[in-house]
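# nightly structure sweep
# worker-07 picked up a monomer target from the shared queue
# config: single-sequence mode, recycle default, output format = structure tokens
# input follows
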Amino acid sequence: MDVLVLGAGAREHALCWKLQQDGGVGRLYAAPGNPGMASLARLLPLDASDGAAVVEACRAHGIGFVVVGPEAPLVAGVADALCAAGIGVFGPSAAAARLEGSKAFTKEVLQAAGVPTAAWRAFTDPAEAERYARVQGACVIKADGLAAGKGVVVASNGEEAAGGIRTCAALGAAGVTLIVEERLEGEEVSVMALCDGERFALLPTSRDHKRVGDGDSGPNTGGMGAVCPAGSLDRAALEAVGRDVIAPTLAEMRRRGTPFQGVLYAGLMLTAAGTKVLEFNCRFGDPEAQVILLSLDEPLLPLLQACAGGKLEGRPLRVKDGVAVGVVAAAAGYPASPGTGGFLMACRCSTPGRGVTGRRSSRPVGACSPFAHGAPT
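# output follows
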């Protein structure tokens, strides 16, 4: 079967690499892709969030299955358009993707499902939100909508909290609604599950490191690197996350008439009071996907097709021994205002059974991963 991967970043490069490694794929396409992916897939110059254009491209090229990488096409309803056209797709509907598209919606679902999360309040008046945040002091400020990993500010005091409100309110549509939430203390870990609307299969654990600077310093980013497995959750603890977080969330989404099919990504905080959900994403994480896909020891496409068809086997997935580590190199000024143009960049990664690799490039880049060395993203 010919397959199309939607997206242009390192996560999509990793997906293409894994699909090609496994075999069983006919022609592989990426849209829009990036030059680093061209050795794996034929690039199609189209807008990944334009459902009609994606459907037309699939029909023109005989593509039978689509894997959606980023969140924006999911929130825009690309999976709905493909389903309506009878084309197989891995990724949730727009209604189910609200779990990532709206943090307030996620909080409502968590509360209804009885899943532990941080205490929170939502505001549409930035001045009111700022007054409340100043009183809270140490708290977390979040823009309700999609903000490319830049809509979260972790504040240590009232002044930082007020600044976080102003920062998130300036994000346009993403910051129309603002969330002020309890600041949880503990160890952060990511758990992703492949879901078919009812059943799920847990992927290996991972942890991304969000602060831009060494020593966990500086502003949050979309992720400066990741490790898999995280090491904080043993098998029993991971199964507890499936039972206490993933299963009740899927049940609540079915109850609402919006079953979730795709990757449900739970960002968790391991607190002294137990595991609590920080956020949900509705796709593979980036940079977590890079290390998770290196660690997965079975073909990916059959799993994705089973999710799309509601036929997933709820069983443990096969995982390689060892640890996978990915490090992101970003342009100066990232995340606020990354520079563009060429610079000399080195990226190193270790993978299960493959040691450490490194490559250098002078191509213009915004960020890189083990799967996109030197490729613009």
